[in-house]
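Shipment paperwork, digital attachment
Item: protein structure file
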Amino acid sequence: MTPEIDNAFALVKEEYGADSIERVERMLQPKNERHPLQKGAKWIMPGISQQPWHDPYGHPELEPIIRAFEANHAAIKQEMETAWAEQRGEFSDYEHYLTRQQNWQALYLFRKGALVEASQPTAPTAYKVLKEYAVDTEKLCPLLESHFSTLLPGARIAPHCDLWNFSINLHLAVDIPEDCGITVAGETRTWEEGKCLLFDYSFEHEAWNSGSRPRTALLMDLWHPDTTVPERKALVALITEVRKLMGES
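Attachment content:
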């Protein structure tokens, strides 16, 4: 802990109560217990449900986001087809915190704590829905991002755990060929075009595209519905300070 983190935590406690961020503080203690399939994650906050796959419509806080994206799928898919055909330079190799893959392409809508305004003309429908339903409502975790994820034919994302369990990953299936899928905590599912998948990506997961054309999904990192507003404020302060100490922008 640093004085900056101590001060930020004190302000949250002053506003919401002394016990309001108890789980965040427990997360920072040694020997924090976790599920074996979360062993590769850096941060595991106690009290978050140890459930890898979630019903996309099972959380009232997140359901409006999911419904809005699914309702706008046709327009989102058309805009991505046009972008892939005519504006390929807008896409870049995806830079995961563990690796960088040329056969995993990304177009970012939200990154480094802000909407990527340069992407609005390329993906106006997705940008609008993301802003109105996830960013303006503060359901998107600002510590992470939202991007179109395109796996080229033959691409495979190796098994890994993402950084923590206090956000949850939403996939809108935009353009889905045959022979692609995703496994989370040993359970494999496929994307259904126009529908969403929701899962806790602190559990070990992998994905692949063995099809003959690119697979595109729109990914976004939302606050896990098991977290509270004071916890979210404390977590933003904590991770922001940690990144600063590590020299990350």
